[in-house]
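User: Hello! My lab partner asked me to get a predicted holo structure for this protein. The small molecule is flavin-adenine dinucleotide, SMILES included with the sequence. Please write out the structure tokens.
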Amino acid sequence: MATTTAIPSTKISGGSFLLEERKVDEVFTPEDFTEQHQLIGQTAEEFAVNEILPNAEKMEHKDFSVTRDLLKKAGEPGLSGDEIPETYGGLEMDKVTAAVIADHIAKYAGFATTWGGHTGIGTLPIVYFGTEEQKKKYLPRLAAGEIVGAYALSEASSGSDALNCRARAQLSPDGKHYILNGEKMWITNAGFADLFTVFAKVDGEKFSAFLVEKTFPGFSIGAEEHKMGIRGSSTCPLILNDCKVPVENLLGEIGKGHVIAFNILNVGRFKLGAMCVGGARLSLENAIAYAKQRKAFSKVIADFGLVREKLANMATLIYVGEALVYRTVGMMDVALNEVDKAGADAAKETRKAIEEYAVECSILKVWGSEMIDYVVDETVQIYGGYGFVEEYPAERAYRDARINRIFEGTNEINRLIITGFLLKRAMSGQLPLMPAIKKLMDEVLAGPGLGEDLEGPFLGVSGVADAEDGPTEGRGVSGDCDRHDASVSLTSHGQDRIGGEKDHCGSCRGRHAAHATGDPAAPGEA
Ligand SMILES: Cc1cc2nc3c(=O)[nH]c(=O)nc-3n(C[C@H](O)[C@H](O)[C@H](O)COP(=O)(O)OP(=O)(O)OC[C@H]3O[C@@H](n4cnc5c(N)ncnc54)[C@H](O)[C@@H]3O)c2cc1C
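Assistant: Hello! Below are the structure tokens for the protein in complex with flavin-adenine dinucleotide.
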């Protein structure tokens, strides 16, 4: 049963954070967790501490029988089926719950990757795009962890450019099977998964998705990759050699595979963001514990200001990450609550509600993955030499974190998604970005008007500028902006570090623009 009681009621448009101010009660934070959220968080925490962490070494050495057992155990209290509808054996919880579980499971990245691959990208394609028969056949066993899911989009020659895949699907002459040929690369869980969402082009043109069981003829798994990190997860290529997939295992529509691929990755991204927060929090805890007991110069290193600064920066970034995660999933849940679950268009409306926050999900992925890299790096630094050796947790966390900037869409691709989606929404009028940009440009170009009551850094600008027309060597305007000081002249203060165009404060930007445009109304030029 979905937990909804504490979710704010205002539906917020995706990307609107750029333009709109929110009231406190419109923003979801961990303080809004319901009792159910707290309970599932506690369950996930206990599972991580009592079941996952004690088995981490075995998984690190690729004992995947342990991994499979853990996935089954995770299924018992519902940690694998929280996003699966109750009708198909899941708990049908909200996205806040999904984030809470991901946050706690992240204590060991090797298993978290496995679990994310299984419950997210390995299961959700069926939840959102499966037929009734497909859902009945696969979802209950996926929810229970009896079978393990995986998602096979990437190929050796097409990762970011996934739609350019080479895998092919051809309908068999008797019309009963699709015959798949090709190879997939870097597939999480491949070494032990049972069910794969595989993307291939029907007739070499129509990008489509198929549910492929590992027992289907012509399907095989390549060797495990030797990875820098997340060694406790399985990553292998798939080989499709005249692989016979029953026609009823086509997922979604022919030629619409991209809708599946991108929507699923979107959900994967908010979970990845939540896992980054959870992983970073554990690193910070380790760093604090170590700093409190390691001594140098007769003091514990936690007493040194430079070490404290590191811990404070780490905590700050984690706090921001946490706020981003729960604010985003809270917004998603409001939108999802409006979907009529019994309606004919429920699946489509659900996908739309999730896609609404594609920008926020990509921001979360980028921020989370870069934040955890900073945190694990500083943790290694705090551990000093011990940070560089395997017996201490800092070393593995450092290696494990790096993948987050690469999978679920590289951070470069996600940055493109952020700008691409924002512009798309702006152009279609869904987001009134263009009028806001114009208004801002007008304000910037106009600068503060004469006679206005100026405040803060603008105080006194017009007086100074009136007195001295034009660039004057050595003219001090200390207080105008933090780039101005008595020793910096107007001819040089705006140069950026690379020597290109400048980074002015609001007040001087107005004056410089006026130099360029000859606007007589600009301050100092009257
Ligand atoms: C451990 C691991 C697990 C994985 N699990 C899965 C999985 O379960 N399923 C799956 O399908 N895939 C999986 N992947 C694949 C992963 O998603 C891809 O590696 C990733 O999408 C990048 O693709 P690529 O490696 O081909 O890099 P490329 O696409 O070749 O990119 C190389 C570099 O170029 C940059 N780049 C590419 N295009 C642009 C552009 N337009 N603008 C700017 N920069 C650009 C990229 O950001 C990157 O820095 C996994 C990979 C790893 C390593």
